[in-house]
Each structure stands twice: as structure tokens, then as C-alpha cells.
Amino acid sequence: MKSLLRLCVCFGGGLLLSLLVPGTMMFAGAFGPLAGWLGSGEPLAGLLLWGLPDGFWRALSGVEEARRNLQVRSFLAFCLAILQPALLLAALAFRWSRPR
Q1: How far is the CA of 17 from the CAs of 11, 42, 45, 64, 75, in angstroms?
Q2: Torsion of Cα atoms, 60 then 65 then 70 then 72, to 10°
Q3: Predicted structure pTM score
Q4: How far is CA 29 from the centre of its chain?
Q5: Quick one: pLDDT at residue 100?
């Protein structure tokens, strides 16, 4: 139970950091690296859109033919781009906070 709580806290911290960094980059005017970072979610988004059935995406988004909808693809890519560093930071923090 302690490990699950520790993992949730680590993931929450990683998610908070991965949401604060793009906002800071936007205020600093660093749009080039930000576009590269947000573009990192595109390949996985495409794979998920084509790998999971249409009924799943229709139930989740309410959009017919969600695989071909650019707004659904863009939002999914954004979510995955934010989630990637959050998971990495959570894994590092979880490993580093291991009880001795």
C-alpha cells in the first residue's frame, strides 16, 4: 500500500512538472523546442488511433470516424506528449525515493 501511494505521489509530481514546463516555455517565447516536444506524441497517437477499434474512439470522443479527425488526433498527441515526461519523472522519483 505504501508503494502504491509513493507511486501516485511521484506520478503527481511528474505530471505537475510536465504541465508547468510547457507553460514556462510559452511565456519565455521558446516555441521551437515546445513544438518539438509536443510533436513527440504524434507517432504514438497515430498508432493508438489506428490500433484501437472505431467503437472505442466513438464512445470516448463522440466523434464519428475519430481516426480521421484532426482535433482528436491533436488532442491525443498533446496528452501523450505531456504524459511521456510525467511517466519518466515518476519512474525516476519512485526509484530515487526507495526506502532504505
Answers
A1: 10, 21, 22, 34, 19
A2: 0
A3: 0.81
A4: 22
A5: 65
The tens place of each residue's pLDDT in the chain, 100 residues long, gives: 888 888 888 889 889 988 898 889 889 988 888 888 888 999 999 999 999 998 999 998 888 888 889 999 999 999 999 999 898 888 888 888 776 6
Question: Cell numbers of 78, please?
Answer: 498533446
CB burial of 78-99 (b: ≥16 within 10 Å; e: otherwise) equals eebbbbebbeebbeebbeeeee
Q: Reduced to 3 states, what is the DSSP secondary structure of residue 80?
A: helix
CB 15 within 8 A of CB 87: no
| Dist. CA 12–CA 93, nearest whole Å | 11
Contact between 18 and 81 under an 8 Å Cβ cutoff? The reply is no
> Exposure pattern of 23-50 as b/e (b: 16+ CB <10 Å)?
eebeeeeeeeebeebbeebbebbeebbe
As a whole number of angstroms, the distance between CA 28 and CA 43 comes to 27
